[in-house]
């Protein structure tokens, strides 16, 4: 990754921070795109302190060389729930950097037990808007810079929860009803990955969808630890959950793998941190023992191409005023 420029959204906590730190430790110039500059700067300082201790950094990060060779670590403001913020961020990045090599669309919220707005500033249901629509716009706006790298990469954070999304996620968007926001946002990431492979094939910009697994990360902060549900959940997490290094494995691998490994796939490339047998996707794709990074087909219907194209059109309408 030495010499490459990488953007990681939601890089101040959880697997986003570990992803950013790992790519930085391997020589990349990493832009930590965070909603709060204060929390982003605090995370940057934590990463710098971690890299100062080789033993600690190797335990917590994916480092592919005998000796870490850090690149640059920068913090920039980005609120993916607000399309105005996405537009401002993209404009500033295009001015500051001539090319972007990797975009990791990581930021997300599950809404469990958290006090969140019902809508984004643009009136889109908050969870779907944060997890998907903001990243859709960001990807579209940064495509020219990604294409200048001669092999740009887009990494889209999905989840096992995409299995429970709507049969046709494009209709869920066009209807304006947005059922199962979290599940559909993660299914939409899979469809976006497929459509990006088609839309951007001529510009040599590739895309990968990744499932981080069940991870003990900051995303569960909304669950009250003192409640019965909270105590049971924490117990389950202690037994079954991956740590943030394991959870970041698929994102780091997707950012680093070669174009040949991605473009040869006939279905959207989807990486998981567990061994998943072909005869029983669930529960093996949901939780288990970390066994490295594996590729398996995501759950998409036979008319994936049509759904992905319609989803692209519907989200283009939602973002119309910001794509110019």
UniProtKB/TrEMBL annotation:
Any Pfam family = adh_short
Query: Which GO MF terms are attached to this record?
Result: oxidoreductase activity
Keyword line? Oxidoreductase
The keyword Oxidoreductase is assigned to this record: yes
Keyword Oxidoreductase annotated: yes
Q: Which family does it belong to?
A: Belongs to the short-chain dehydrogenases/reductases (SDR) family.
Per its record, how is this protein called by name? Uncharacterized protein
Identify the species of origin: Guillardia theta (strain CCMP2712)
